[in-house]
Automatic annotation (TrEMBL):
Heterotrimer of A, B and C subunits. The gene is gatA. This is Glutamyl-tRNA(Gln) amidotransferase subunit A. Keywords: ATP-binding, Ligase, Nucleotide-binding, Protein biosynthesis, Transferase. Its EC number is 6.3.5.7.
Length: 491
């Protein structure tokens, strides 16, 4: 493996800025690595070799001309296939968008380009970001670099696996119920879900619009913060974008790296430290809590009594919103069209297209959502779930009157074998038991590697109040400074 692929994004940017390497060299090293391991990992749905090298050359020319470079200039980044990329295929892991080349860039991708990063390609994901293992991708699963027979988490398993396999130093994910944090946890990488509205949804293919949050994935906390800073902030093209600057996440990560948490009060969520998690996960979590205490943090237990209703509420709200959002995939506007032979009605063509284009999990969600929103059931299901959402939000606000941040394991279990949970949807849904409350509330949360269980990575989740994203980076960086980073066996 070329050494360049082992460096952090901050280190790569430093070398490029100092002229010790070029963006082209860095990009080529990662493309070579992708060529060497992709047949085993399958993190990417599309590698944009030409586009990446062209962007790298352009950056090197700007540098040679003396242009001022941003903090991530010349650093390669892998982008989850849920974000539109101008002229570059965007499938959302679905057959229904196979071959679609969007006519525009999402805001996140535009900001990545403006920052001089180099987009390597688009990463694999569960279809329409629905899933926790990347097994629901219409293009085949991604394999966890820690153990190729296991899942890399989902829905953003491709982004997390690309990091763990050293195919990219940075990646973008999207988190509706845990799809950044859970893949981070099970691949030993860092995944942050920003405050809802803190990162733009413009050009993010919608799953559940009141929950969807794009965010950074990296191998170190500082790298995640640097990426967060580049992609975050107000976007007038997203009506729910918060018109405030990004909290100082980079400063907070640097502060945390000093390893001092004096004056920081952390609440361990009682409901998430009981029987729901594997013993190995709980052991790693408990050790990390002790480590945080040694760094000066005050640790208390906090009960959030409504968190136990988060999963059922989410599985009404998210499918409801998806049933509406996915109505646009009708065979007329984008991608796949089936049965348009001149003899069939528009409705028949739409129906055949959707039948052929959507996979079983997406269809299940559309059916659940349509039912939950139907007249006569609306109040009983969707309305009830929204009330639960309010109660969960109140749990968070009352907790944050007592502590600076909440902590829990990120996921109840480590990476499971491919195929182990596809037979029963509920078993798959359990993967997000601990991550979903944050989405319903809208606050930020990060997963940071905290240890191993049976040789597989365990993540610790830090949840902070809305627009206090900096807080979670401080705690995460402090933990990282004591437990270190985790390297999978060589591929
Ligand atoms: N696993 C959850 C789901 O299937 C969360 C997905 C996500 O965050 N995109 O809905």
């Amino acid at each position: 493996m070329s050494d360049l692929t082992k460096l952090s994004a901050a280190e790569i940017a430093g070398l490029v800025a100092g002229g010790e390497t070029s963006a082209v060299e860095v990009t080529q090293a990662h493309l070579d690595r992708i060529a060497a391991v992709e047949d085993r990992v399958h993190a990417f749905l599309h590698v944009d070799t030409e586009g990446a090298l062209a962007a790298a050359r352009a950056l090197d020319e700007r540098r040679a001309a003396g242009a001022e470079l941003g903090p991530l200039a010349g650093v390669p980044v892998a982008v989850k296939d849920v974000l539109t990329t101008k002229g570059v295929p965007t499938t959302v892991g679905s057959k229904i968008l196979e071959g679609w080349r969007p006519p525009y860039d999402s805001t996140i991708v535009q900001r990545l380009r403006d920052a001089g990063t180099v987009m390597l390609g688009k990463t694999n994901m569960d279809e329409f970001a629905m899933g926790s293992s990347t097994e629901y991708s219409a293009y085949g699963p991604t394999h966890n670099p820690w153990d190729l027979s296991r899942i890399p988490g989902g829905s953003g398993g491709g982004s997390a696996a690309a990091l763990a396999a050293y195919e990219a130093p940075l990646a973008i994910g999207s988190d509706t119920g845990g799809s950044i944090r859970q893949p981070g946890a099970v691949t030993g990488t860092v995944g942050a879900k920003p405050t809802y509205g803190g990162t733009s949804r413009y050009g993010l293919v919608a799953f559940s619009s009141s929950l969807d949050t794009p965010g950074p994935c990296a191998r170190t906390v500082l790298d995640a913060a640097l990426l967060h800073q580049v992609i975050g902030g107000h976007d007038p093209r997203d009506s729910t974008s918060i018109p405030q600057p990004v909290p100082d996440v980079v400063g907070a990560a640097r502060l945390g790296a000093t390893g001092d948490l004096t004056g920081v009060k952390l609440g361990v969520v009682t409901e998430f430290t009981g029987e729901g998690a594997e013993p190995g996960v709980m052991a790693a979590f408990r050790e990390s809590v002790e480590a945080l205490a040694k760094l000066g943090a005050e640790i208390v237990e906090i009960s959030c009594p409504h968190f136990k209703y988060a999963l059922p509420a989410y599985y009404l709200i998210a499918p409801s919103e998806c049933s509406s959002n996915l109505a646009r995939f009708d065979g007329v506007r984008f991608g796949l069209r089936v049965g348009d032979d001149g003899n069939r009605s528009l409705e028949e063509v739409m129906s055949l297209t959707r039948e052929a284009g959507f996979g079983p999990e997406v269809k299940r969600r559309i059916m659940i959502g349509t039912y939950a929103l139907s007249s006569g059931y609306y109040d009983a299901y969707y309305g009830q779930a929204q009330k639960v959402r309010t109660l969960i939000t109140r749990d968070f606000t009352s907790a944050f009157e007592q502590v600076d941040a909440l902590i829990s394991p990120t996921t109840p279990f480590v990476a499971f074998p491919i195929g182990a949970r596809t037979a029963d949807p509920y078993q798959m849904y359990l993967a997000d038991l601990f991550t979903i409350p944050t989405n319903l509330y809208g606050g930020p949360a990060i997963s940071v590697p905290c240890g191993l269980s049976d040789g597989l990575p365990v993540g610790l989740q830090i949840m902070a109040p809305t627009m206090a994203d900096d807080r979670m980076y401080r705690v995460a960086a402090a933990l990282e400074s004591t437990v270190g980073t985790f390297t999978p066996p060589a591929l």
